[in-house]
């Protein structure tokens, strides 16, 4: 039996008609309802970390020299730096292990005599800074590098950055842990929501940060007071991996 509504107060909206049509279609076709449910998804993020002892290190050394002129300051810094580079090579450092990291020439001012108003500070000399990075591939010899650097004339710096020459294996371990972490979260969410966890639809690795492992430590705050045998603790380096997993719901 069909009824035709023509009363002016009955003006069904398009949205209501669409909703009624979908509801009727789903009721008439259970398979369509199941397909619609399977279109849902669970998105989780997984995190994993792995640690290992480092097998190489990068050391930073700086030579600071002063002179009455810029030329004399640079000459003094260059002479000392040549001695430092020679000492590093004597210990086994190759050309690929030595890299200039920083060079600067700065005027030195006298701020004490300000008796006259608006008098600008006078330049009384110049300072030259020359910094190098040294890659130490025999990590047990780090103390020797520090000792020789001080002996050669290094008077500032001494930062140490430990790392792995090849972090691939460690990074892959962190990735496996990240996937396991994401899978555990997705399983928990599916159980809590009372739905069946489907297959993985998408895996994305978050590469916002450099995945190479690195652990830094400062040594030689006062280079001139360093002892002939500098103690160094290498500890461990840690690498992390972060991924995003998208699972289907309902066997999808």
TrEMBL record:
User: Which UniProt keywords are given for this protein, alphabetically ordered?
Assistant: Signal
Q: Does the keyword Signal feature in the UniProt annotation?
A: yes
Q: Pfam families attached here?
A: SIMPL (PF04402)
Q: Its Gene Ontology biological processes?
A: DNA damage response
- InterPro entries in the record: 26kDa_periplasmic_antigen, SIMPL/DUF541
Keyword presence, Nucleotide-binding: no
Q: Could you tell me the superkingdom of the organism this chain comes from?
A: Bacteria
Q: Which N-terminal stretch is annotated as signal sequence? A: 1-33
Name of protein: SIMPL domain-containing protein
